[in-house]
TrEMBL record, chain A:
Listed Gene3D superfamilies: 1.10.720.40
Keyword check for Membrane: yes
Domain LEM positions: 1-45
Keyword annotations: Membrane, Transmembrane, Transmembrane helix
Stored SMART domains: LEM
Cross-referenced InterPro entries: LEM/LEM-like_dom_sf, LEM_dom, LEM_domain
Taxonomic superkingdom: Eukaryota
Record SUPFAM superfamilies: LEM domain (SSF63451)
Pfam assignment, any one: LEM
Organism: Oncorhynchus tshawytscha
Record-given protein name: LEM domain-containing protein
From TrEMBL, chain B:
GO cellular component, one term: nuclear envelope
GO biological process: chromosome organization
One GO MF term: DNA binding
TM regions (residue ranges): none
PANTHER family reported in the protein's UniProt record: BARRIER TO AUTOINTEGRATION FACTOR 2, BARRIER-TO-AUTOINTEGRATION FACTOR
Species this protein is from: Oncorhynchus tshawytscha (Chinook salmon)
Name this protein carries in UniProt: Barrier-to-autointegration factor
Keywords assigned: Chromosome, Cytoplasm, DNA-binding, Nucleus
Main location: nucleus
Amino acid sequence: MAALRNKSDQEIKDLLDEYGIKHGPVVDTTRPLYEKKLKETMAKAKVTVTKPSPDRTFYREDQEEVTYVTYQTPVSIDYFSCLRPVFRPHVYNTPSSSSYSKPTPVVKSGGGVVKKENTTSSGRLIPLWVQFLVFLILAGFLYFIFTNMESAESSPFNRIQ
Amino acid sequence: MSSTSQKHKEFVAEPMGEKPVNALAGIGEVLGRRLEEKGFDKAYVVLGQFLVLKKDEELFRDWLKDSCGANVKQQGDCYGCLREWCDSFL
């Protein structure tokens, strides 16, 4: 790998075209910038080449595709698991959702803790604390409804009038 | 860039002539001095660089960051200023 600095302007221009880097004329003031860009792109290209993959011309595309797929699925799954227990209060008592089989007063804190444990560290579109907060607000609201309604199923806080 | 500064408005209102480099939006005293040390002592020299980079935003931002250490906002202000000036006068 010859040093970029020793190459002629024409060679730098050819390299920029080869890597598909958008550029203007290679002159005194632009040369350092293009050399830096080439250096970065070459280093990146070297990293992708060392990955075991079949003979392909566009390594960058391959990498992008992989990251795109892995990023999408966790977000979509998590969103549904977050929404489902909220919109259907009956689900609170079924074992399918995380752990809402405990009596209602514990749902607020117990369920919240479990929810936090399940989601440790993964890229999210909506920050974790926002999800947590929304969940708490909705859980509290539903708990309020539960205690103020006559529900035969599970409401140990029946008012004795 | 939703709103433009007073500096931007003043710069794009007329031909730049011999205005110093810190007349450009985003370029204050510190950045201006760094650019002058590199030989970009007038606004039109930075304009020259902007044109040689084919008025490309990414290239110009990278160049500005490398030459004087401009941050993202300063890069954006300077780019927007020059682009608008070119739209009117070039």
